Structure formats: structure tokens, C-alpha cells
Amino acid sequence: MQIxxxxxxxxxxxxxxxxxxxxxxRLNILKYLDQGKKLSVTEIHNLLNIEQSTxxxxxxxxxxxxxxASKREGKxxxxxxxxxxxxxIIECVSQCV
Length: 97
Fold this sequence. Notes:
Strand content: 5-15%
CATH architecture: Orthogonal Bundle
Largest sheet: 3 strands, antiparallel
Strand order of the largest sheet: 1-3-2
Mean pLDDT: 89
Number of domains: 1
Shape: globular
Number of strands: 3
Order of helices and strands: HHEHHEEH
């Protein structure tokens, strides 16, 4: 599918996903979730060395905009890329900087 094949609703959804990703901390989160990894809030907050509430805030934004999905297992919620192709965005960005 090419970008010209997308309707206005799909373009708006894509733009919202890109806006959600366009934050250094959120890009960092996505970096840890590539290759099908699933991590809990605690694991992500430990990797990033930031407050758990801040981690939850960023994860909520990414989930709300369709970038991440989550699955509850026992008392933990695990986050993962909703679309594995999103990892290509991180790869592309890393090659451009």
C-alpha cells in the first residue's frame, strides 16, 4: 500500500501515531519493544530510569494512539508494538541521525 492509497481517516490515524512517537522518551520505549518483545511497566521504567508514573503516562499515550497494545498477565500488564512494522520507523530514524 502506498501513501496515496490511504483515505483521510487513515492519514489522520497515521499522523496521530507519528505525533505520539515524536518524543525522545517514547522513541526510547519503542526501541526496547522491537523484535516482538513484551515488557511490563516496571521493566520499562527500570530500563529508562524514570519514574513509574512517567512511564505509565508515556505508555498510555502510545497505547491510546494505536502504537502499542497491552496484555494483562496476573498482576502485570505487558506492552508490545501493536504493529510489528512500527519497528521500521525506529530503524529509519536511527539511520537518518
